[in-house]
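[agent] plan:
  1. take the single chain provided in the ticket
  2. run structure prediction with default settings
  3. attach structure tokens to the ticket
  4. add a short note for the reviewer (M.T.)
[agent] executing step 1
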Amino acid sequence: MAAPTPIENNGSLSLALAVVGSSTAPLVLLDGDLNVIAASASFFEAFQIDPTGAVGEPFLGLGDGEWNLPRLRSLLTATLSGAAAVSAYEMELKSKRLGLRCLLLNAHLLAYGDGAAVRLLLGMSDITEARASEKLKDDLLREKAILLQEVQHRVANSLQIIASVILQSARKSQSDETRTSLTDAHSRVMSVAALQQQLAASRLGEVALRAYFDQLCISVGASMIRDHDQLSLHVDCDDSAVDADISVSLGLIVTELVINSLKHAFPGGRKGRITVSYQAHGPNWTLAVADDGVGMPKDAASATPGLGTSIVEALAKQLGARVKVIGSRPGTTVSIVHTQISAVDADAMAGKAV
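[agent] step 2 finished; step 3 output follows
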């Protein structure tokens, strides 16, 4: 039940009339029969209604009768009886002079003391422009989504075409060195295509890493592993989710490290397993790619870093992390470690501990 706002009888009606008449916002004061007692000049101006003779006339009959809406009549009548309240009620007004307008209505029941006639104060705001702006924004967002989908589709097709051309060139090449370089390029293009496909499929602001790495390893394995009984890829990841831009860098790191293991860790048809793991504790996280292959060569420290190594180091630096390589028996583990303590501070602390 809507509680009426009490107003003392003495001079209160005159005060209400003065307030309504001087209001810069469209206001109308109605009696118990929904007749106009007073209205602000802004109301008449906003809705292009002739104020002459408006006082005493039915509110729903003003203008060309555009206010005579069954739903509005029911709401105002219910508010007068105290059975309902009109608060931020949105409605459309079809006017011959103004066209279609979108309004926000508020109605308050006024009481002038026991047994006195009730009054209804009706205020309104024209939100047509705001709703039009919202619709325009929604339309632009939909158009952007469609364009983005089209761009993603074209990018995927272009990457497939590029990969096919590179692979054909590799097969035709008579030079082992050129063929190897082209095969590496083909693998990288396919990995980027896999990344693009996974991120395009994600409609959320964050990417769940477990499913992301699963699909990424499936894509890389499909293009680089001939015998899946010989070599296998596994993912051991917690329930972490990261922003899409961070997932791109992590995905590229995983791709480079997995490709490196597939190329070097299992020579001569050696069986093996590569595990991609990711564990996070608050802001600290560790991404690792471990294999059980032949391990690092003895002269690895003096070897010139290859393209894959340079890519991993650059991406790790971009993420504020450091690269840690551990040779084990068997295999090699490359970890990307991100902590709140910088690599320099960590090394200094390790030196003090020794």
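[agent] step 4 note for reviewer: The two ends are 77 Å apart (CA to CA).
[agent] ticket updated
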